[in-house]
Write a sequence for this structure.
């Protein structure tokens, strides 16, 4: 974990090294000041030597100013190092997430990734700054103050040593007990973020079903879980303060009592006693700061492990050593393809699929929910890799292609249509970043999106809110189809992407495809027979196996599943009337 996190310090190594140096210098100056104060009292105030008071006082001022300067510089460089470290962690995680295949992404929840990029990184940032400053300052202060105390009076310094040992044991017990609760608390942030994310993204559904109270209860439950864990941890941490105060005041009483007796016996001066009392506070405060560091480190260990999970996750889909950069055509072949999402799963999602699809063909794909229609087409652009067999595009195994090259030639319009915040033009140019206005408009005409875009006051410069919430489902689908068409792909996959479009518009889109992109292989996944019946061939899937392949007319005669679906969609009213006659 330390190696993984440490690699992200990079250009902030200099700041990370300079910060402890300034902390050491600051402590050194602070340690000298009580010693100089003792000299002023014993050799200046007691004998009335004003010259000595001025001289040593000037040295104290210089030491205090230098200590202040070192503290400021330590804070400055420490802040740069910790914030830069946090920036690099976020950037490294985000960049690594972009390399993930779908199977890698499936291992993490969206809420979990958001928590890692925000809360967990902030915990690491705070802990790192405390390590650079307090974790250096406190031990050095403890050692220097203890050394000066033994130099002044070994007998009284023994009281400090005993107090440090007792307090150190108490703080260690408190920290260890609190660690358990902090380890449990931070993963619960995922549940809280998930509750917020679901509520905000599905706010229309929540309101439509009047489930606000239910969502409030869910959020409150997740929030209370975190609160309870932190309360348990904080209850234990609160023992730090009374333990510290009891120890400090006991030391002050013991030193004052013993020191007074030693002053009377002329074995200790008043100035030395004053400096010893100052060192007492320095020692105890350094222990308190160390306990805070340990608590922060304890809190950040869980965050560090979660961050490392993302940083160390390697994509299971990578480019081959000598990839192909040219896809000859849009032909697709499945050779004995078997696929499992979970490699240890006994039952495959797709089982021994054999298909050959010609370039430029229009292929419909029909099947019930869970028949693995989306899984089949996801293998074409290598969003997942097959478990057994081969998928060929343009006559070559997809695993031999450069990933960017392959995916640029395969345009996919997924079931969940996603638009990003920005104008319509900006969303369309996700398909082709240098597309001209005319190219964008042509793609929209093919997708039958131009008819509603031109009704907007700002036309193609209309601003789309995040997720496309200010356009309807059908409009969102057509914009996503237009965006895919701008890629001018050799293969176009429509994964149930016209479900929110009326039948007439669906037919217009399919006819436009036939006329305008005849050389593009088109795979249309649909629930409506009307969306695929004009396809060159139709694939029927059942439970991950190939149940039928042929034209609409052939399947009506030979395939029972296809015929049942067709009859239920074209003659469903008869069943409804019979069921409702009672």
């Amino acid at each position: 974990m330390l190696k993984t996190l440490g690699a992200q310090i990079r250009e902030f190594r200099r700041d990370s090294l300079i910060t402890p140096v300034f902390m050491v210098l600051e402590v050194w100056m602070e340690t000298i000041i009580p010693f100089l104060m003792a000299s002023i009292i014993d050799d200046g105030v007691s004998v009335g030597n004003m010259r000595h008071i001025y001289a040593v006082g000037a040295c104290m001022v210089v030491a205090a100013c230098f200590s202040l300067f070192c503290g400021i510089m330590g804070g400055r460089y420490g802040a740069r190092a910790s914030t830069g470290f946090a920036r690099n962690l976020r950037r490294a995680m985000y960049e690594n997430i972009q390399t993930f295949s779908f199977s890698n992404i499936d291992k993490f929840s969206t809420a979990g990734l958001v928590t890692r990029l925000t809360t967990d990184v902030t915990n690491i940032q705070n802990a790192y700054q405390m390590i650079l400053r307090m974790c250096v300052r406190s031990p050095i202060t403890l050692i220097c103050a203890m050394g000066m105390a033994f130099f002044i009076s070994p007998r009284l310094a023994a009281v400090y040593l005993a107090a440090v040992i007792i307090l150190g044991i108490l703080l260690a017990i408190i920290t260890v007990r609190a660690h358990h609760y902090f380890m449990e608390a931070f993963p619960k942030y995922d549940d809280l973020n998930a509750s917020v994310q679901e509520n905000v993204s599905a706010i229309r559904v929540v309101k439509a079903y009047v489930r606000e109270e239910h969502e409030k209860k869910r959020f409150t439950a997740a929030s209370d879980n975190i609160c309870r864990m932190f309360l348990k941890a904080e209850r234990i941490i609160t023992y730090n303060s009374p333990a510290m105060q009891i120890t400090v005041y006991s030391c002050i009483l013991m030193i004052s009592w013993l020191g007074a007796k030693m002053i009377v016996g002329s074995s200790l001066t008043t100035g030395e006693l004053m400096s010893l009392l100052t060192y007492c506070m320095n020692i105890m405060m350094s222990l308190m700061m160390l306990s805070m560091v340990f608590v922060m480190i304890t809190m950040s260990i869980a965050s560090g492990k979660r961050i490392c999970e993302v940083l160390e996750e390697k994509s299971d889909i990578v480019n081959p050593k000598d990839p192909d950069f040219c896809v000859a055509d849009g032909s697709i072949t499945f050779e004995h393809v078997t696929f499992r999402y979970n490699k240890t799963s006994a039952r495959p999602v797709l089982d021994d699929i054999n298909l050959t699809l010609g370039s430029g063909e229009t292929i419909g794909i029909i099947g019930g929910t869970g028949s693995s229609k989306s899984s089949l087409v996801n293998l074409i652009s290598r969003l997942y890799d097959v478990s057994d067999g081969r998928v060929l595009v343009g006559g070559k195994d997809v695993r031999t292609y450069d990933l960017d090259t392959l995916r640029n030639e395969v345009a996919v319009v997924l079931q969940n249509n996603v638009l990003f915040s920005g104008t319509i033009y900006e969303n369309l140019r996700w398909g082709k970043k240098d597309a001209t206005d005319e190219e964008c408009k042509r793609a929209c005409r093919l997708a039958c999106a131009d008819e509603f875009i031109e009704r907007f006051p700002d036309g193609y410069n209309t601003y789309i809110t995040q997720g496309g919430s200010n356009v309807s489902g059908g409009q969102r689908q057509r914009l996503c189809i237009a965006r895919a068409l701008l890629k001018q792909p050799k293969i176009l996959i429509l994964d149930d992407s016209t479900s929110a479009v009326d039948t007439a518009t669906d037919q217009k889109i399919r006819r436009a495809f036939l006329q305008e992109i005849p050389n593009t292989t088109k795979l249309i996944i649909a629930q409506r027979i009307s969306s695929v019946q004009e396809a060159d061939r139709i694939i029927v899937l059942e439970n991950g196996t190939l149940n039928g392949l042929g034209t609409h007319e052939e399947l009506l005669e030979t395939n029972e599943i296809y015929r049942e679906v067709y009859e239920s969609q074209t003659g469903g009213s008869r069943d409804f009337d019979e069921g409702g006659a009672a």
